[in-house]
Amino acid sequence: MNHRWAAGRARFARMAHVLAVVVLLVGSASAATPPVDEAELQKLGFKVLVATTEVQQKWVRELPPGKIRPMQRTGKKYFIYPDAAHNQVYVGGPAEYDAYARAHPAEIQAAQNAKNAAVQDSARRARDASTMQAASARDSSNPLLGLTWADLGW
């Protein structure tokens, strides 16, 4: 009986070890983009806007953290980076964002690749949806769902 427990514990220890190694490998393989340096943004010309009202603070907290995102306001294009911890946003125009893009081409390329992948995935889903709609329309128009009398053996 003790032999079974010892064998089971040894097997569990091996599995836990393998799981730990896999978790470490997966964690190191998925390299996150480095955080944006706020001081660098200011050097590049981004302006700091402090959220003073409760509505502004809520808006800053709800922005996706760690990313510079485009925004259009009154016909002008801006790029904003939220700093929810300090209730502020860094705001720059196309010139400031271009300066940031020249300083960090790998990050911009990774963001563009992610955007392209999302667009391709959306297009694939739309194609799949139209294919399924066509198949559903075909199947609903035929009460035998594509079968003929010969298929039924008559």
Folded structure, characterized:
It is a single chain. By secondary structure, the chain is of the alpha+beta class. Among the domains are: 38-103, no CATH class; 105-141. Helices cover 58% and strands 14% of the residues. It is built from five helices and four strands, in the order ααβαβββαα. It has helices spanning 2-29, 38-43, 54-62, 94-103, 105-141, and strands at 47-50, 69-73, 76-83, 88-92. Strands 1-4-3-2 form a four-stranded antiparallel beta sheet. β3 and β4 form a beta hairpin. The longest helix is centred in the last third of the chain and has 37 residues, at 105-141. The chain is elongated. The mean pLDDT is 78.
Summarize the structure.
The protein is an alpha+beta fold. Helices cover 58% and strands 14% of the residues.
List keywords for this structure.
four-stranded antiparallel β-sheet; elongated; 4 strands
Mean pLDDT: 78
Give the oligomer, counting copies of the same chain as homo and different chains as hetero. single chain
Sequence stretches where pLDDT stays below 50 over 5 or more residues: none
Helix content: 55-70%
Per DSSP, what share of the residues sits in E-state strands of 2 or more residues? Answer: 5-15%
Q: CA-to-CA gap between the ends?
A: 64 Å
* Structural class estimated from helices and strands: alpha+beta
Backbone shape: elongated
The number of strands is 4
Radius of gyration: 27 Å
Give the biggest beta sheet: 4 strands, antiparallel
Strand order of the largest sheet: 1-4-3-2
**SSE pattern:** HHEHEEEHH
